[in-house]
Amino acid sequence: MSGPRNAQDRLRRLLVMLPWLMEVGEVPLAEVARRFDMTEAQVQADLELVAMCGLPPFVDEMIDVFVDDGIVFVGVPRLFTRPLRLTAPEAFGLLTSARTAMDLPGADPEGSLGRGLAKLAAALADAGLDVGVDDVSGEESHGDDTAGVVVDLARPELTDELAEAAASGAEVEIEYYSPARAEVTRRSIVPRHVYADVGNWYVLADDDRSQERRTFRIDRIETAVRTGRTVDVEVVAAPERFFDDADVARATIRLAPGARWVLDRYPIDELTELADGWVEARLPVSSERWLAKLLIRLGPEAVLSEPADANPAPAAARAILDRYLAAGD
Amino acid sequence: MVDRIERLTNLLALLLETTRPLSLVEIAAELDGQYPENDRARRGSFERDKAALREIGVPIETDIVGGGPFAGQTTYRIDRRAYELADLDLTPDEVRALQVAVAAVRTESGRDAIWKLGGALGDERSAVSAVIPHRPELPAIRTAVAARAPIEFGYRGERRTLDPWGLLLRGGFWYVIGHDHDRDERRTFRVDRFDPVGAVDGGGGGDARPTGEASVRIGETGSFRRPASFDPRTAFPADPKQIGAGADERIDALVRVDALRAVAIERELGVDRVVERADDGSIVVSVPAGNLPAFRSWLLGLLDHAVVESPPDLRQHLIDWLSALVGDAAATTEPGLR
Predict the structure, then answer these.
(1) Cβ-defined contact of B318 to A324 (cutoff 8 Å)
(2) Would A39 be classed as within a structural domain?
(3) What is the CATH number of the domain that holds A320?
């Protein structure tokens, strides 16, 4: 929507916009802009440009489109009446989204999503982008190759209950284990959004204890009981990243090649490649305890460079070690 | 000179409309005045345009003229059937369901795909959503799974060749499961642990081709068959802490977990894993420890709420690991103490 757009991106967008315009025939410029996430000026400029495209003897006639008084008109559709086939990343993105959505609480695999997915998979198979399951006899059957890509978002048992509460505005009393303080608290929450992110399930909820909207990790909720109180349902979007917050403290850690998984697991502000496959990463730290845990798990594969004078790992490692030395021997 | 997007659009139109493959000389003649006069400059501009079109997914076919006065010349065309999205015959509620799926699962390329299907992402709001980790290697691996083509990649500094049977997202990570050529057995690899681009040296088979940004080479289509009974969920090691370890390396550790974390851990591992319950609320659980790094990472995530009771060598390993962490600071901040 903003920033300079290169010719490639503009063409990519035009190739989905033109078939749609030909289908609808006449549509307000503002609606085109909103639908394709562009400004009206950008839509107008690009359409005027392609209106001049063509080949002899059809120069200026091949793409019959014009904008008049805020309305886009399409004349005789000649070229680009069908969208370009899906690219491998698009096909992957779509299939993964559909498979994931089928694995979310409340999904109906027999419903429209399941049917749409089956048609999509069959079309991709025909296009050579997917094949069906191998049969023992060696014949290939076209259809959704469900074994090819599997999304398994195993969820804690309370997830469905919390998702239902979010959908009905029900207040729930929970017992929550807080790792930052290593204690279990009892609080009443109204779930607003339930989501999975990098292997964990979270619930974004209005929390009576802090009087704020907070995110809780569902596997740390030990019990959840409805209080009987209900409030208006308010569907809110999931946060972009769990603790992607400028107010959160940062740490800079050097990571060995074997510790690179950290880069995928957590949001990273800054990344510098070092010698021998090491990297230096600056990342948000939700709590000192979290940082200590990360460093202890990584051991020699991580070196904290900042804050150098406040490394929480040795004291935390000492606390664990004391338990080994006290117990038994 | 015309605007680049105009030239690209004209080139695309020409290659779609032509009834026979065209050489660059013919293309330049048709698109009169749009490419430079100079041979080398013209070739350079055309190659950039061709690459740009291919990158957005346009299938440009090339051919070498076999005989006649133009023998040896390269010609170009686009097969309309390969270019156009097949009619999926989706009903409006199916498009809408896919739209909601893409909105609930934020993937990078889902939006463009939905546009192509005639939908658009509007203000779908759902009370449930998921974030799926993205890896540049994934589309290439999926394509290879579908094409039954082997893949070649670097993994912890070693080159591996695998018949990919399937991809599995579990616990927030993508895994590829298949038949490892060198080990001659089924193996599971974590995709985000693939070595970055450039780490695989180019000595592979003649058919192997690099796949752009991804660090995966795809071999010949139709090279293997997948067992009919294959299901990534059951093929996956039963416990993630067992990945990479063979069945014969099965070691179970006994771990005491504090009352504070006992409920959550029992729920995570299942009641069958609890071997002892103490009066103070703590429990002893039996945990697979065949893959030491994975086990250690899981255990230390519990900080001082969990202690290994046996086997003794594993217990000693953790004492050594922790002592090293404590020692680092002790040496610099508390010389002579302890």
Answers:
(1) yes
(2) yes
(3) 3.30.70
The residues in A 269-288 lying below 8 A from B, measured between CB atoms, are none
From CA A43, how far away is CA A38, in angstroms rounded? Answer: 7
Instruction: Report CA-CA distances (Å) from A235 to A165, B112, B188.
Output: 12, 25, 39
User: Could you read off the pLDDT of A275-297 as tens digits, one per residue?
Assistant: 888 999 998 887 888 899 999 99
What top-level class would CATH report for the domain B247-333?
Answer: alpha beta
Within the 112-131 window of chain B, which residues sit less than 8 Å (CB to CB) from chain A? 112-118, 120, 125-131
Q: Residue A103 corresponds to which amino acid?
A: D
Confidence of residue B279 (pLDDT cuts 50, 70, 90): very high
A65 touches chain B (CB under 8 A): no
Domain ranges (residues) in chain B: 4-83, 87-132, 138-235, 247-333
User: Is the pTM here over 0.95, yes or no?
Assistant: no
Q: Check pLDDT > 60 for residue A244.
A: no
> Does A126 touch chain B if contact means CB atoms closer than 8 Å?
yes
Domain B4-83 has CATH 2.60.120.560: no
Specify the pLDDT at position A161. Answer: 92
Q: What's the domain range around A176?
A: 159-230
Note whether A279 and A263 are within 8 A (CB): yes
Helix, strand, coil tally for chain B in percent (to 5): 40, 25, 35
Tell me which of B268 and B145 has the higher pLDDT: B145
The answer to whether position A146 is within a domain reads no
